[in-house]
Amino acid sequence: MPLQKEIIDNSEGNKLVSFLNSTLKENANTNLDIATAFFNIEAFAMIKDNLHGFTRFRLLLGKTPEIQNEKTLGDVLLEEIRKEVEGFDLTREADSTVRLFIKFLGRENVEVRLFEKFLHGKAYIFDDRIVIGSSNFTAAGLTRYGELNTWQQQSQAVYTRKEWFEKFWSESVDFKDDLIRLLEDSRFGSKEYSPYEIYIKSLYELQKDDIKEEQKGEKDKPRGLPETKVNLAQFQEDAIARIWTRMKKYGGCIVADSVGLGKTWIAKKILEQIGYYERKNILVVCPAQLREMWRSELKKIDTKENILSQEDLASESYLRKGEENSGWKDG
After folding, report:
1. Domains in the chain, please, with CATH?
2. Which of 9, 78, 87, 134 has the fewest CB within 10 Å, making it most exposed?
């Protein structure tokens, strides 16, 4: 049995985005009030070509049960929009969409507000009709199958706007300026950055995986284990974070710091983690004249002494010894 024409479920030929665009075309001068829990710029992009002659546009964003932390609704929404914008490719289309949205927000007849208390209802209110249902003002909400919305004619639209939407709108706070500021500060905005800020941003992009690894390491650090016996300077701890990132990504890492920056200590810290805390086999390969030094260093961190000199690598007997002691087998 086909759905009644008043039902919009985003099935093929019955998508909310099509309904909104056709309504805006038919009623170019309409007021449009939207209440939603989630919002993204992609949704705006889907109807932007028909947002020209409207009388007034109001977007009301409400708090949902999913937001359980101490962050405010504004903080959560700004973070989500920031992630969306950062995820856009650097294309002319993306640049045009974001700039057009900034310009759209700058119009006097466009308002965006937050209702910090619980508001889970979704509504799209025109002058002569209204859509009520499950669809948020997001790309998925306007197009993804599985939503369920119903639309009704003028009398219900007038009543809902007056008795429901206006009540929440009057208790909400402005969000438009914060949203514009976020978009202007993005790579698609008009804010100019100094050479220093660009340099710092470039450094961050190069090092962000290492920073995340370091933060993750602190968070996931087991409690109750013996204290490390290898205490490093901060710049050496930073190096450790970079080494772990590269070892996980490439399966190995070369430490090529200048003389006197503590390559031995950095190596000891890695060996302590693998050999002592993780109880895995390790193998140290070094020049013959450094074997005794490494034997002493491994004792200090209570790690099994499994050392081969570079000269030993030419001997099959030593290679077999290394394989037996380290648990490593070729192939």
Report:
1. 7-185 (3.30.870.10), 225-326 (no CATH)
2. 87
